[in-house]
Amino acid sequence: MIAIIDYGVGNIFSLYSSFKYIGAEAVLTSDPEEIRAADKIILPGVGAFGDAAEKLRATGLADVVLEQAAAGKPILGICLGMQLLFEKSYEYGAHDGLGLIKGRVVTMDGVVPEDYKIPHIGWNGLHFPENREKSPLFKYIREGECVYFVHSYFGAECADSVIAAVEYGAELTAAVSSGNVYGVQFHPEKSGQVGMKILKAFCEL
Amino acid sequence: MITKRIIPCLDVRSGRVVKGVNFEGLTDVSSPVELGRYYSENGADELVFYDITASFEERQLFTDILREVASTIFIPLTVGGGINTLEDFDRVLKCGADKVSVNSGAIRSPNLIAEAAKRYGDQCVVLSVDIKRVGGRFHVFAKGGREDTGLDAIEWIKRGEAAGAGEIVVNSIDTDGVKKGFDIEMLEAVNEAVSVPVIASGGAGSIEDFITLFREIPTIDAGLAASIFHFGEVSISDLKAALAADGVNVRL
Prior knowledge:
The complex is a heterodimer.
Chain A: E1 2-5, H1 13-21, E2 26-29, H2 32-37, E3 40-43, H3 49-58, H4 61-70, E4 75-78, H5 80-83, E5 86-89, E6 95-96, E7 101-107, E8 120-125, E9 146-151, E10 153-156, E11 162-167, E12 171-178, E13 181-184, H6 192-203
Parallel strand pairs in A: 1-2, 1-3, 3-4, 4-13, 5-7
Antiparallel strand pairs in A: 5-6, 7-10, 8-9, 11-12, 12-13
Chain B: E1 5-13, E2 16-17, H1 32-41, E3 47-51, H2 56-72, E4 77-80, H3 86-94, E5 99-102, H4 104-108, H5 112-120, E6 125-134, E7 137-142, E8 147-152, H6 153-163, E9 167-172, H7 184-193, E10 198-201, H8 207-216, E11 222-225, H9 227-230, H10 236-245
Parallel strand pairs in B: 1-3, 1-11, 3-4, 4-5, 5-6, 6-9, 9-10, 10-11
Antiparallel strand pairs in B: 1-2, 6-7, 7-8
Helix pairs in contact in B: 1-2
């Protein structure tokens, strides 16, 4: 059973449908017991970092995620859910994240060339770092296959955790992992068959 | 490198796709669910659904259909048509839409874009603008292109971007339905004026028209069309293969 954490942020309906499509059992939940009982956890998220971090803490679910991460359960953060895994974000002020991935979340303004549009919206190819073994999350994915991105901020100072990058005038973090904790900046649930294969690989971890 | 997006647009009324649709291999060509799935599995990078219902009952039906479409496709879904209030945003987002397209509603309610962007994020708000040349200037038209608002289109779009619109769809009334190509001059003017993604709409009649679009305006992000895809005149896979052969970066 996959627990998709429902803390009032974003379109989690598509995530639920995606797991159904690949034949995995999933539940949308904000119940700590249900999350503890699940085999794997999805931390979704769309919107602003500060609000989302506050909601996650206010509901007490931040502690549940930390406790489950420490217990070794596979966790996948998606989009803003990935950014929440970092130590800090600088989106409209400075906010603390969960600190499960070393690094911080910063704007791509000033990082990507001026003629590149922000947000980075659309389908872009995944590149896997040459100096490390391919992550099991991408075992069904070939170098260069496209996934769907929508974001203006990205994970920085996290070179040790990067398992996939994307080229957008600069090299941006597309996915990270540290032990049992994984994060993807893109939306697998909106990335067609490629996205379904990534979710399937997560289910098989 | 980011790819150029190809986006089919479906007009839905009374739970059915209107405008002729002519595909082989589909059991029900007028079903938005079947057609959505077909496009999703055959290379479309996004889907746009336009709600052109006339009554409350039809709107309920649209909502049901939208929910079904959203649960069967795994590419981004934009919904437009009749979006006037935050409640309208809420209604379609709850059905599984990823982005909401506003047009006349933004003209009627000047704060709609800002309020929606604040609540749902810039990435969720698409400003769609119907533009026609009037006396050498680009004017914004409302009510499905029937009413000249007198607004300068470039100024209007810049205001929309400042308020939080995350993408702009430019519908050229001058080239729409003519099938002789996109309105390069108009699109260039808009693309120059804003820094968010711009989607070209209106006028596509052939594969060559898309090649011209991306060649003339290399920084334009996407091309949207309806009937040429629905009639099967142009298949998305053929279109993308031709674009790739011409050096345009597309998702194959």
